[in-house]
Amino acid sequence: MKITHITSALVALSIGAAASAVAQRAAKTTTQHAQMSHSSHASTTPTATKTTFKGLAAKLGTTPEALETAYTTAKQANPKLTRGQFVAANVLAKNLGDKNSAITTQAILDGLQSGKSIGQTLQGLGMGAADADKAVDAANKEIRAANRAKPASVKPDSTK
After folding, report:
1. CB 85 within 8 A of CB 93
2. Is the pTM of this model over 0.90?
3. Among the listed residues 38, 33, 56, the one whose alpha carbon sits nearest the alpha carbon of residue 150
4. Residue 112: count of CB within 10 angstroms of its CB
5. pLDDT, tens digit, for every residue of 8-21?
6. Are the CB atoms for 122 and 135 separated by under 8 Å?
7. What CA–CA distance (Å, rounded) separates 128 from 82?
8. Cβ atoms within 10 Å of 49's Cβ, excluding its own
9. CA terminus-to-terminus distance, the chain
10. Which residues have a Cβ under 8 Å from the Cβ of 148 and sit 6 or more positions away?
């Protein structure tokens, strides 16, 4: 009878130790995976960013580097800001700024930082709801077209 109890206790301890070891390995693997994905994401972001802004930069009359710098600055001010929101704010400001001087990239970014959507921000800047929706739709269409378009290749200067 004593041997049965001792054997049962040893089996229970073995199972508990094995389960604990598996749990520790799983936690360690998850931690390593999270660290790996974070570091690999950070290393690919600058390259992905610059290529993303190429078509848009031409449309906005600026450089991909200038947009990248502006996005980095805006992202520091509002960590929740997405690349899509930043791009839309720039396109909307370019499209609507002539008709309404209150609509600027910074005004749209400020509205987003306060928790409003782009549509709500545009309405707060004096647009009607239907006009804001149309403007956002048109901007999204332009952004998709700019992303599909290949930027004009720069020919080397033959005078050098």
Report:
1. no
2. no
3. 56
4. 22
5. 444 444 454 444 44
6. yes
7. 25
8. 16
9. 98
10. 55
